């Protein structure tokens, strides 16, 4: 397992523990109240880590303290972002993630290609499985790397 997989678990627990210690209220979907709505963590085989913290409403002081905590506790985070989502659903497609620290994307390599993955990118979350899928598709398609003439 790459080191970023271990970071995933630490970040998740660290946010929970920090939130409990600092009385940050977790979001209740039915009641539509709370502060911390969601935590999205994406990592790549190369060790890039993107963390997106989704808040239900803005509280600048609480938000900055939590994000600063994550940045200082986990310097391996290469992309730290946040979103304020006041909608009744958890979809982020129409939201604007804000870059707090680092890069606006993470990089992933698959079959010799480099992909820039942003906070709303549609990309196979299990890269190892994606590599296997590409090999199977290539085999089924009979791709040889040479193009037949028309």
Mean pLDDT value: 87
Quick one: overall form?
Answer: elongated
- Please report the distance between the alpha carbons of the first and last residues: 46 Å
Q: Note the beta-strand portion.
A: 15-25%
What spatial order of strands do you see in the largest sheet?
1-2-3-4
The total count of strands amounts to 6
Q: Note poorly predicted spans.
A: 1-5
Helix content: 25-40%
Oligomer: single chain
Give the C-alpha Rg.
19 Å
Task: Please write out the topology.
Layout: H1 3-21, E1 36-43, E2 49-55, H2 60-73, E3 79-84, E4 98-102, E5 106-110, E6 113-117, H3 127-141
Parallel strand pairs: 2-3
Antiparallel strand pairs: 1-2, 3-4, 5-6
How would you characterize the overall build of this protein?
This protein has 150 residues and is an alpha+beta fold. It has three helices and six strands; from the N terminus they run αββαββββα. It has helices at 3-21, 60-73, 127-141; strands at 36-43, 49-55, 79-84, 98-102, 106-110, 113-117. A hairpin with a 5-residue loop joins strand 1 and strand 2. The radius of gyration is 19 Å and the shape is elongated. The termini are far apart. The relative contact order is 0.14.
State the gist of this model.
By secondary structure, this protein is α+β, with helices and mostly antiparallel strands. It has three helices and six strands, in the order H-E-E-H-E-E-E-E-H.
Features:
150 residues; alpha+beta; 6 strands; disordered N terminus
């Amino acid at each position: 397992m790459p080191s970023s997989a271990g970071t995933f678990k630490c970040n998740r627990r660290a946010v929970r523990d920090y939130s409990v210690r600092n009385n940050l209220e977790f979001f209740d979907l039915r009641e539509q109240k709370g502060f911390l709505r969601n935590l999205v963590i994406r990592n790549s085989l190369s060790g890039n880590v993107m963390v997106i913290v989704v808040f239900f409403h803005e509280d600048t002081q609480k938000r900055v303290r939590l994000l600063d905590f994550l940045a200082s506790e986990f310097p391996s985070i290469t992309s730290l972002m946040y979103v304020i989502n006041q909608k009744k659903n958890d979809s982020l497609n129409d939201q604007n993630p804000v870059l707090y620290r680092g890069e606006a994307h993470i990089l992933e390599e698959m079959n010799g290609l480099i992909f820039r993955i942003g906070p709303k990118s549609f990309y196979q979350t299990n890269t190892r499985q994606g590599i296997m899928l590409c090999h199977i598709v290539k085999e089924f398609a009979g791709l040889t790397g040479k193009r037949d003439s028309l």
